[in-house]
Design goal:
Number of domains: 1
Helix content: over 70%
Distance between the termini: 34 Å
Number of helices: 3
Amino acid sequence: MPIICIAFLNFLTSIIGGIRDVQVAYAQSAGYAEQALQAIKIVQTYGQEKLEARLYVKHLKKVYE
């Protein structure tokens, strides 16, 4: 029984760590998206839409991993 409990705790901590990493990656992506939306006139004026999209996708790749 103690071996099963230890294995379960190890499994649980790895799941919690993975969830935490995903939440951090989503938060970073959301931060970049929010900055771009707040400064949409500047982004559009200087033609930075593709750059902002690349930054957003870059941080989303961490989520997919």
